From TrEMBL:
Gene3D superfamilies found in the cross-reference section: Tetratricopeptide repeat domain
Signal sequence extent: none
Full protein name: Putative Tetratricopeptide repeat (TPR) protein
Family, as annotated: Belongs to the LcrH/SycD chaperone family.
Length: 183
């Protein structure tokens, strides 16, 4: 068999494997399943990532959470962990985007904390403050009538109030600066 023919067959085989892989992912499969990783092993990775995060080793935790997301891109808890690491590393916009991914994977009441964290990231980054307000309003509304979340609600209310006051004072001082320039 000549080399060109063998290379062509190898490429065709790899393409077929790629089709199988994409079909696996598009039908709800994960890379961990594709690679034959046991759920127990993936859970051990998660345990290690949480332990690293809780001990303040955010760079290391970030790497493990990143691997977890690679292995199972459908798990909102892994996305949340990755976002939390990014937030601790002051990569606020990246963190906000990953928190949003965790919400999209698991819409519903369980995403209240992700919404809250997105607002925090946007506020600290001083970006999209209108959206930050909307996220805080969502958190407050979602926590209403839930006794176990009343402390969370009060923190969101305080952050929203502070955000609005800061924005109002910036608008007033901006108007004052314009008057000073005109004089």
């Amino acid at each position: 068999m000549d080399k060109a023919k063998q290379d062509g067959e190898n490429a065709e085989s790899e393409f077929s494997d790629g089709d199988l892989f994409m079909s696996h992912l598009f039908n709800g499969g994960t890379l961990a399943e594709w690679e034959g990783r046991s759920p127990k092993l993936v859970e051990m990775f998660h345990y290690a990532a949480v332990k690293l995060y809780n001990s303040g080793r955010y760079d290391e935790a970030h790497k493990v959470f990143h691997e977890l997301v690679r292995l199972n891109h459908l798990n909102p808890e892994y996305m949340f962990g990755l976002a939390a690491c990014l937030q601790k590393k002051k990569k606020y916009i990246n963190a906000a985007n990953i928190y949003l991914s965790s919400i999209l994977l698991d819409p519903g009441v369980s995403n209240i904390e992700s919404s809250f964290r997105i607002a925090e990231c946007l506020i600290v980054a001083d970006k999209s403050l209108d959206q930050a307000e909307q996220y805080l309003e969502h958190v407050i509304k979602s926590c209403s009538g839930m006794d176990d979340l009343k402390n969370f609600k009060s923190v969101a209310e305080a952050k929203l109030d502070l955000l609005r006051r800061n924005r109002s004072s910036k608008e007033k001082s901006g108007g004052q600066e314009e008057k000073n320039k005109e004089s």
